[in-house]
Design a protein that fits this description.
- By secondary structure, the protein is mainly beta.
- The chain has no helices and 15 strands.
- The protein has a 5-stranded antiparallel β-sheet with strand order 4-3-2-7-8, with no helix packed on it.
- Strand 7 and strand 8 form a beta hairpin.
- Belongs to the CD200R family.
- It is found in: Membrane.
- One of its GO terms (molecular function) is signaling receptor activity.
Length: 177
């Protein structure tokens, strides 16, 4: 989320026509077209955050600026050249890294929150905890995971470390309540 993404088409000589067919999970389909004979581009139902990248030495590409969850979906590039017709399909999956916070509840127990992640984060503790994480889904497709530290034995240190695992990265924080 928030980054730019660049998807490339097959690099072919003598391109006649190039089309991106975009089917996002949210909203309707979008089509970007380019005709070499007229050097014209056309867009149908595409947001301004989607733009062509043309360069003589590189494969033609589509840049999606400030990617959001709404842009997740299938992106197909169709190239027509004197060599033939070529298709490349991408499935764009958008990751939202969670915001990590660690605090102490009213009973003096550590509470770890991995807020608004996509997909949901996995939360664990060091030392090991008997806690069962709670998940809360949000309208934007993100999920907050909340975990309360529960010691497995009585001979544990008073410092607990929350470890968050997510495809966008891993984080940890420690606290003594």
């Amino acid at each position: 989320v928030g980054d730019s993404s660049v998807l490339t088409c097959p690099h072919k000589a003598n391109i006649i026509m190039l089309t991106w067919k975009i089917n996002p999970k949210a909203g309707g389909p979008c089509i970007l077209g380019y005709r070499a004979d007229t050097n014209m581009t056309d867009r149908t139902n595409c947001s301004d955050s989607m733009n062509w990248i043309f360069s003589p030495d590189l494969a033609p590409a589509l840049e999606i600026q400030q990617v959001g969850i709404a842009q997740e979906g299938n992106y197909t590039c169709e190239v027509v050249s004197t060599e033939g017709n070529f298709h490349t399909t991408y499935h764009l999956t958008v990751l939202a890294p969670p915001r990590l916070s660690l605090s102490c509840d009213e009973h003096g127990s550590p509470v770890c929150e991995a807020a608004a992640g996509r997909p949901p984060a996995h939360v664990s503790w060091a030392p090991e905890s008997n806690s069962t994480p709670e998940e809360k889904g949000h309208d934007d497709g993100t999920v907050t995971v909340l975990s309360r530290f529960t010691a497995c034995s009585t001979s544990v240190t008073n410092v607990a470390t929350c470890v968050v695992f997510h495809p966008a990265g891993n984080w940890s924080q420690s606290t003594a309540c």
